[in-house]
TrEMBL record:
InterPro entries: Alkaline_phosphatase_core_sf, GAG_Ulvan_Degrading_Sulfatases, Sulfatase_N. Residues 514-708 form the Sulfatase N-terminal domain. This is Sulfatase N-terminal domain-containing protein. Keywords: Membrane, Transmembrane, Transmembrane helix. It comes from the Eukaryota. The keyword Membrane applies. The chain crosses the membrane at residues 12-30, 42-63, 75-98, 128-150, 185-202. Gene3D superfamilies: Alkaline Phosphatase, subunit A. SUPFAM superfamilies: Alkaline phosphatase-like.
Amino acid sequence: MLTSRQPFVRPFLLSILVVSTVTSKLLHLFQHAGSIPTALLALYFPTFFIQEVLLSAATWFLLQKSTSLRSIVGLILVPATASLTFCLCSSQLGFYFVTGSEIRWDAVTSVGNDAEGRKLMLSGLKSFLGSAAILLIMSWIFTRVCSAVFDPWLSALFSTQPTEDMHEESMLDNPKAATRRKRPVRLWTILGVIGTLGLWIIRPKVPYSHMSGAIPFTFLEALVASPAEAHQSGDNAFPLPELISEGHWKAPDGRFKGWSPKFDMGTTTSPDWASGKLPPGFERWSQKNKHVVGPNTIKANGTEQNATTIKNYYNPVNDPLRITNLDQKLLEPLTLALKDRDVPITHVVLVMMESTRKDVFPFKSGSHLHREILNSYKSLDSDLLQQLSANLSHLTPISEILTGESGGFPKTKRDAESSLWEDTAAAGMGGLNVNGVLTGGSLSFKSEIVNHCGVWPLPVDWMDEIKSDIYQPCIMQVLDLFNQFKESSTTESSRDLRDRKWTSIFMQAVTGVFADQNILNDQMGFKKTVYREDIGQKGAKHYHDDIEEINYFGYSEREVYPYMEDAIDDAIKNNERLFLSHFTSTTHHPWALPKGVQSEQYFSDESLIGKHEDMNSYLNSVRYVDTWLGDMLSLLDKKGIANETLVVLVGDHGQAFQEDSPVTGCYENGHISNFRVPLVFRHPLLPKIQITANTTSISIIPTILDLLVQTKSLNEKDSGIALDLMNEYEGQSLIRPYKATDDGRQAWNFGIISAGGEMLSVGSAAVPYRLILPLTQGFEFVFSNIETDPDEVNLLRGWSVDDLVSRVRSVHGDKAGQWVAEAEKVGKWWAGETKRLYNHAE
């Protein structure tokens, strides 16, 4: 219990609360200061501290010694509130020092509920403890200052004598003099309150309400926030109706089901292959004799029902945004190659590469990152420059082979690299390299859904997809459907590959339980999974005593090598076709390398500590994973299946560092470095083709199916199914000319910004523009022109779309401003429509 024999405790508690709340608010204002005019920031400045002043005054009042209930409440409530506020401010400062971003308490509580998520949070413990130490020192220094400010002011205001240990000098005051001082204090307080309330009344709600929130209130608000009402179907009209009017409709043609989205909501029919029991993911094809006849009603077996009583399903006929390029011929080099030779695709390997940016796949001379490295050196003589270029030439040699893009550095040979994978493909062969690809989500597992299922992710925080319906069949489920029409596989090696059954396996060396990834993988249709939890058990087949955890999520990729070898051996032995999905992990924070792997220094000595250290570690992890990709490809060569395996390599998202953006990491950061990713379709017997398409990874599944059909790697039944399904997915096939527009409509692209429910990246294949669209309050609208500013150095911002449109028009012209206005409308429509398709209750 706090007593008068503890003269420092009460004022110290007040100081902790005041320093924590004020520091938190000043940091909050600093992060938004550049987004509003300085004059308005100064004018409304007093209104930002209303909550802090009230909380501090209440704390002072409760700290006054008394024999009443007030004293008891104060002794319980004040230490708890001060401690909570102190911890929250320490977390806020620590998060800012690491990422340059603002912490969101609702996301913290979500991550904190996950055991693996808590490991992620603990990775910032040093920054948190450092911030806590700074706050404690500041609180100790300002203890007397807080008492000197609050004691005379609040004592005069409420005619209360301050507690002796709150401000000992106040007891020596002459009572009459103290009475005389009360009048001006009260007068100035009243005038201040009236003025502040007046400013509070006249100031705009956006963005100033968000800027006024104070801890611990914002934290408690996040804890008790209630979910919104469920989204109802039919209440989300497409915002550009002139583009979907009857004059633009398209009639059915062969496998193409037509396109008429405005009035006729289309018919969901069951194709011939949907007559039996279908795998999960194909529910909409089993809904016979049912079609939507209006925005709010469903006709089922001739009886109208309310649309909210049944599930929503995706129908390409109804989709106002869908643009298909399946009416286009194959790319000419591909047509010639398939005419001259057989290109079997017996197996498919999909490699999703953690935090892999396009500008490191491969790393190139003259790139933004290369310039950052060069600029870190105060002086570069010819010898040092030659040595640096030699080091950089060995950074991503495998990526150079896979993409067909040269890094631009002079090649040198190292003894340690004698075992690196060497391409066996003939000159001019190797597959498709796609430039211009953005991820569909900067949260790994949302990206995983895009890559494996050909759908947009759900625009809500974290992985609510596991509680909803993924509205298209994932590739593993499609392969399951193929299996239903086949007899059991035999062990005869001569059996036609098209008659073999598929097996699907997912492998990664890190945990599979973070954000319920294991549940997601089961939902998507994987038959077998391998995670850290499997390979780290002593009873695991390839367990060894010196297995090494390189980060808080698990092991390095090499720990799954023997399991990959087993999977390939089993597929060959059982005469099966293998779909193997692998997620790399070393390029995830903290970018640690296994013991024995030498770390290279790319940046200068003096620049590493505190500035380029993270980027240098990241580049080393990129080099490690690049070598690992070569080891995987060597395994395919070793097993004799390289020439019959399609390998798809794609980044799950990028990774922003301080070399790119003031805000680092992916969390609530829409910077282009978090979205631009590599995409390669590797096959030694396919021609090397360079493709440029402003698209997203939603095109992966249609492209895989198209390749399987065009290479005649499917039998007649499976080909018919694949051709049907290719006309169902939203993405375009990348082995055909990409359609940026169609009859006045743009090919819109979307990307979820981690954690998912608050910000959206909106782009279009028709223009180089990009809009960061807030889905909730507290974020700015951001515009960039990737053509003139590829690294997004000069961004335009606005707290309202009208404000941003005005700024864009003044810099980029009327057409760019009009595009922003349309992108905002389409983005908001897309968010609501996607929730409807997932049958997600908000």
